[in-house]
């Protein structure tokens, strides 16, 4: 009986530990902007939201993907912008694993593709998110 109880408790802790590891790994997409935005900045916002909220909605639902829009002209946004050394529109796709962050600045890519090569922008953004979740 003691062995059975011990094995049951050990299994429960193993399952709980694996669930914790899975829950501690996610991708966070950060879109920084100010009050004034150009057409390209608006395109980055629009297509990033499409990818996150429509194409990858299941990952959002499961807590594996998070999106945060940050207005750097607000006091809260200014603090976060300082952390990332952002002072204008920017796009970051970051992996969080066990409390440690892996930053990926995709700003240049966003400005090069979001407006004039939308399909490439969306495809690459999805690929990056999926790659970071592996």
TrEMBL record:
Which region is the signal sequence? 1-22
Q: Which domain of life is it from?
A: Bacteria
Q: Which Gene3D superfamilies match?
A: Glutaredoxin (3.40.30.10)
What protein is this chain from? Answer: Thioredoxin
Q: Which organism is it from?
A: Bacteroides faecichinchillae
Task: Supply the alphabetized keyword list.
Answer: Signal
């Amino acid at each position: 009986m003691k062995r059975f109880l011990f094995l049951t408790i050990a299994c429960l802790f193993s399952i709980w530990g694996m669930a914790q590891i899975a829950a501690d790994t996610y991708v966070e997409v950060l879109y920084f902007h100010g009050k004034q935005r150009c057409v390209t900045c608006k395109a980055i916002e629009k297509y990033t939201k499409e990818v996150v909220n429509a194409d990858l909605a299941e990952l959002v639902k499961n807590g594996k993907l998070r999106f945060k829009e940050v207005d750097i002209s607000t006091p809260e946004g200014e603090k976060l912008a300082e952390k990332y050394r952002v002072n204008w529109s920017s796009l970051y796709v970051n992996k969080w694993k066990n409390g440690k962050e892996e930053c990926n600045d995709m700003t240049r890519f966003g400005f090069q593709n979001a407006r004039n090569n939308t399909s490439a922008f969306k495809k690459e953004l999805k690929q990056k998110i999926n790659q970071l979740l592996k």
